[in-house]
User: What shape does this take?
Amino acid sequence: MKSKLVLVLFLLATPVFAADPAPTLVVPEGAQAGPNFDVEKATQAWVDTLSPEQRAKSNAYFEGGYVLDAVDFLYGLGVAALFLLTPLARRMRAATAKVVSGPFLTSAIFAAQYVFLVTLFQFPMSYYRGFQREHAYGMANNSFGSWLGDQAKELAIGLVIGSLFAGILYVVFRKAPRTWWMWGTVVSLVFAAFTAMIAPVYFAPMFNTYKSVPEGPTREKILSLARANGIPAHDVYWFDASKQTKRISANVSGLLGTTRVSLNDNLMNRSPEESIEAVLGHEMGHYVLNHVYKGLMETGVIILCGFAFTAFIFDRIVARSGAKLSISGIADPVGLPLLVAIVSVWFFLMTPVTNSLSRTEEAEADIFGINASRQPDGFAAVAMQLSEYRKIHPGYWEEIIFFDHPSGWNRAHRAMAWKKEHLN
Ligand SMILES: [Zn+2]
Assistant: This one.
């Protein structure tokens, strides 16, 4: 990569962080190094550090998510029906035609109205899942006003991105009504890459404050880990995720020159140094293994098949009921809710595939991170902490279908397998 990569580790400068000493790593007895070290027993020892109450709560939270995913999907289809089976979509088209003309502007303005109304219709679901339920499980720190403010910002971004994307897509529909699913995939990927590139620079700072980590041993350790793994990083940052949530997390975002690893302040405050190093190693793994680019290509294949599926179904529905629904063809904006509904069916069906693609890369990053940081216990410890919001030990198929990251049990098992091979 030609552009300078800035490894940006976002850490927060709040009094909370400064006041609390870093927690120390406690390795449970069954997972301590020794002549009788056993991978299975060590994994179980880590899992047993969670109380039955903690596990029950985590299972209930995560399994509830399966139901909510299905409800969200069906609710979305209901919203699409509301647009199509009432005069709503036709009125939006008529209102749009009064102010603008041409395929780009017509579809962009139509899409803006659509994004706004869908957000409004889905508000009860967003409120329950994003605010009420998070507080009920003790996972959130934000007030209703602050949550609502974030929702408004997301809507503003959705309006700009959504209408721009729809505008370009409908020009493609107009020029290539039979082969749009191929060109549409190219447009979607370029758009996804562009959005990914600008997101950490323009969108992320709208929600949180990012600051450089002050000089010190933590910063030096992070930069040293980066240098050792061929990552040209020269700055370290942190961000105040605790404004919204208690969740521990980190991620890789951006593209080309904007690529960065982000760490949240919950991780810095609530996890021992060894865990922070292991998590950083994991995020660096995503970078070194080119997961952002691989992910884009995998997404491209899923979108290509999904658009082909959508074109096939859309044309059949329009041939049969186009007059009744007042949709003249693919280039008619009134068909947008139908398009979105069919695409959502595709992605719902593809859930086990997209989750498995993601989970596989996460497992690769886990291995990389343990190797780079040489902190198997730190990694197992943070895997237990993540069980707050991810079921610790699911069934085999349950993990394949529903998990976009490996389960805590699998992560601890992987770490303990590494530890066994490095006991000396
Ligand atoms: Zn990851």
